[in-house]
Amino acid sequence: MSWQTYVDSNLVGSGRVSKAAILGQKGGVWAASAGYTLSADEQKAILTIWTNPGTAQASGIRLAGQKFFTLQVNDRALYGKKAADGCVIVKTKQAILVAEYTAPTQAPETTPVVEGLADYLISVGY
């Protein structure tokens, strides 16, 4: 399956994710929703979440020009909020899944979709 198919079918196609991207842990966008562009600075900030979580906790995270406040960051994921909308960012062995959701969808609906795909990718070596 192509990386774009994971974004289109597994994430956005779930109906629980409005926009998504898959980044490589060594940099670069592997796939993204149509019109969803993460700037070079945003990508760099995402890549450093787990090496410097204090920055994400203090300043939040920007995705496609929108600032999300960090609710929680752990060894695997970052959860963010912007008004009624939010984001879930999950790290696998080689990739980082970035997903946004918009109200009325909420984190308990989106999180299992993103983390489920992350678990699958980890199980197949990604």
TrEMBL record:
Gene Ontology terms, MF aspect: actin monomer binding
Subcellular location: Cytoplasm, Cytoskeleton
UniProt entry keywords in alphabetical sequence: Actin-binding, Cytoplasm, Cytoskeleton
InterPro entries in the record: PFN, PFN_euk, PFN_sf, Profilin_CS
One GO CC term on file: cytoskeleton
Main location: cytoplasm
Family to which this protein belongs: Belongs to the profilin family.
Quaternary structure annotation from Swiss-Prot or TrEMBL: Occurs in many kinds of cells as a complex with monomeric actin in a 1:1 ratio.
Function: Binds to actin and affects the structure of the cytoskeleton. At high concentrations, profilin prevents the polymerization of actin, whereas it enhances it at low concentrations.
PANTHER family: PROFILIN
Protein name: Profilin
Organism: Sparassis crispa
Organism lineage string: Eukaryota, Fungi, Dikarya, Basidiomycota, Agaricomycotina
